[in-house]
Amino acid sequence: MLSVKGRGGIFDWEISQKTHLEGRIDMIHRGWKLGIVVCFLSIALVCGPALAAEKPTKPIRIGVLFIMSGPMGGYGKHGSQAVQLALDEINAKGGILGRKVEAIFEDDKMKPEVGVEIVNKFIKKDKVDFIMGPTSSAIAVALADLALEQKKILILTQAAANSLTDAKFNPYLFSTLSNALMHSRAGAYFMAPKGYKRWMNIGPDYAYGRESWASFISKLKELQPDVEVVGELWPKLMEKDFTPFIQKIVETKPDAVWSSLWGNDAVNFVKQVLPTGLFNNVKFAFTDGAALETLTPLGKDMPNGVFVAARYFFLSPDTPLNRNFVKTYLDRFKEYPDYMAQETYAGVYFLKAAIERAQTTEPQKVIKAIESEPLAWETPEGWKIMRKGDHSVVEDVVWGETMFSDKYGFAVLKNLQAIQAEQICRTPEELKAVRDNYEKRMKEVKK
C-alpha cells in the first residue's frame, strides 16, 4: 500500500511507490479483484489494444478556463502556468500523435454565466477539441450539461464537488483530482482517533462547501458515534467580513471546527480569527488549508498545529519526477507550484495518455478507450488511476499539521498521514448508483 512515513523532519517523509498498481487496478475493475496485465509506458500506464493512429493534421486545441482575476485569481494563474509548462514539454517531444498541442486561455471571473459563454465560444468559434477547468465547482456544475449537450470532453483539474461525478455525472466529464468526498472522508479518518466530540462547520455556501461537510460528518459519525454537531455556518463565497460567523463559534464553544473555506476566504478568516484567541482553545481542520494560496499570504499568521490537507504539497513526495517538476516550475515562474498547478499539469498528461490510448481525438473513441481498462499515469504527486464507474481518480489523500518554516517563510506540514484510497473512494454500490442515476436522467431527457 502507498504509505507515508515521518522521520522527524519538517518534510522528511517518503512515499513508498512499490505501488501495487496491479492490485489497485484489480480493485477498480471488480469493485475492490480481477486480474489484468499492467503495461508501463513513460508517463502513463496505458492498457488495452491501441487503434490505428489518425494521420497528424492540424494542432490539437484545448480550451482552458479558470478564475484568473480578483482575490481568487492565483488559482487560475497556477493552473494556466501548469498547462503552458506541460504543453511545452509535450510539444518539445513531438506533441501527441505527431500533432502540436495548443491552449486557449480565458478568465471565467468565477461566474457560471461567464463560464458557459466561454465554453460556447471555445466550441463554436475556437473549435477546441477538449476543455479543461474551471476552478469553482459552481461553474463546473453549469458546464456539466453543456459538455454532454455538445459532446465535448471536460477535464476537471480544480473544481472538486463530488456531485460533478455523481449527481451531475455524464460520460464527457473526467475529474483528475481527489474530490470533496475523498478529502472529507480522509479528514474523518484522520480526525476520529483524536476524539473531538463537539463539531461545528464553516464553509462556502455552494456545492463544494456543503458536500465537503456532509461527506466529512457522515463518515465521522460512522467512525466516532458519539460525535455531536453543534452548528453549521455558511458564509457566501468571497465573504469579506467573517465577524458574525466567528462570534457564533466563540459563543458555541465547539471542540473542533471543520472548514472548507479556501483561497483568499481562508486567508481572511484566519486573520480575523487570530485576535479572538480561538486557535488556542478550538482545533481547526481545513480541507484545503495546505494550499500555497493560503499558506504563503498568511506567512507567520498561520498558527502551528492546525490540521490541513491539500491535493499536493510541493515538498513531497521526494521523487525524481516531483523534484524536477518543482525545480522547472520555480525556475520558470519564480514561485513554488501550488496544488492547482500540479493537478492541472497532471490533467494535461491524463489527456495525453487518453488520446494516445485511443489513437484519436474523437471524443466518443477517447471515452471508450479510457473506459476499456482503468488508465493509470504518473504525476509529480504519484500515480493516479482513472476508473470507469464515475470518471474519478483513485489515489490516497494526505493530511497533516501546520508548522512555520523559517526557510520558506510560511507554514509547512508535519505529522503527515496518508489515508488509503480504498477507504475514501466510492464503494461498488455507490458507483452503481452513479451509473443508474445517469441512465435514469437520460431516459427522462428522451421522453
Descriptive overview:
The chain is α/β, with parallel strands linked by helices and 447 residues long. Helix content is 41%, strand content 19%. It contains 15 helices and 18 strands. The protein has a seven-stranded mixed beta sheet with strand order 10-9-11-12-13-17-18, with helices on both faces. It has a five-stranded parallel beta sheet with strand order 5-4-6-7-8, sandwiched between helices. The longest helix is centred in the N-terminal third of the chain and has 20 residues. The termini are far apart.
Terminus-to-terminus distance: 47 Å
CATH topology of the largest domain: Rossmann fold
Number of extended strands:
18
Shape: globular
Largest sheet: 7 strands, mixed
**Mean pLDDT across all amino acids:** 89
Query: What is the strand content?
Result: 15-25%
> What Rg, in angstroms, do the CA atoms define?
21 Å
CATH architecture of the largest domain: 3-Layer(aba) Sandwich
- pLDDT < 50 stretches: 1-20, 32-49
Tally of individual helices: 15
Helix content: 40-55%
Major β-sheet strand ordering: 10-9-11-12-13-17-18
CATH class category name of the largest domain:
Alpha Beta
Q: What is the total domain count?
A: 2
Q: What oligomeric state do these chains adopt?
A: single chain
CATH-defined superfamily of the largest domain:
Response regulator
Structural class of the helix and strand makeup? alpha/beta
